[in-house]
Amino acid sequence: MNVTLDTNCIIALEKNEAEASFVRELLSLHDSHTINVRVVAISASERKQDGTYAVGFHEFTHKLAAVGLGQVEILPTLAYPGMAFPNWCYPTGGEPTSLERNIHEILFPTTVFENRDYRTRVLNDPTSDTGDPQWRNKKCDVLVLWSHIHFHGNIFVTSDNNFRSVSKKGQLIALGAGAILTPQEAVKTIRANI
């Protein structure tokens, strides 16, 4: 069973938040070969606690090791300039972009899909290299779920209410997301089925 952790699960471990104990229990199930826990490479592109971004993928792998995720599989995702890291992404276009767009339209229906469109509409400067942290965060959410679906995930684990809202969850499941559960729900569900 493939269980994909979203970025919030990594943050929960970093900050030792309430969900961290359940994420650790999922890791215990992973270590006993009951499930296969995965994270997505695009999580390395999220803003760090100090407000900066990773300059190399090694920062992400060090973070994973520090929070106890050093042994889990890392899924690649779609390539976005300034966001994705070499060797951890695929070129965009074709079917992957279609799935990506569908996820985006469900999760963020009022946010422009492309960063260039954002720069044109919001900044009024299509050549600007200014990255909008909110647009980037939303794109990371979309790409985490894209990788989960593309690599045949069974359970997507998140504490983010946007993935779990009644109006969106069913649509995401219809795209192939499988179960979308909080860390606590994931532990309960998996324990009930082993």
List the helices and strands and how they pair.
Layout: E1 2-5, H1 7-15, H2 20-31, E2 36-40, H3 57-66, E3 73-75, E4 77-78, E5 89-90, H4 95-107, H5 115-121, H6 133-150, E6 155-157, H7 161-164, H8 166-177, E7 179-181, H9 183-192
Parallel strand pairs: 1-2, 1-6, 2-3, 4-5, 6-7
Helix pairs in contact: 1-2, 2-9, 4-6, 4-8
Helix content: 40-55%
Structural category is alpha/beta
Q: Can you tell me the residue ranges where pLDDT is under 50 for at least 5 consecutive residues?
A: none
Largest sheet: 5 strands, parallel
Beta strand %: 5-15%
CATH fold category name? Rossmann fold
Q: Could you spell the SSE succession in H and E letters?
A: EHHEHEEEHHHEHHEH
Tell me, rounded to a whole number, the average pLDDT: 89
| Domain tally | 1
Count up the helices.
9
CATH class: Alpha Beta
How would you describe the shape? globular
- What order do the strands of the largest sheet run in, or round the barrel if closed? 3-2-1-6-7
Radius of gyration: 16 Å
Count of distinct strands: 7
Task: Write the CATH homologous superfamily.
Answer: 5'-nuclease
CATH architecture tag: 3-Layer(aba) Sandwich
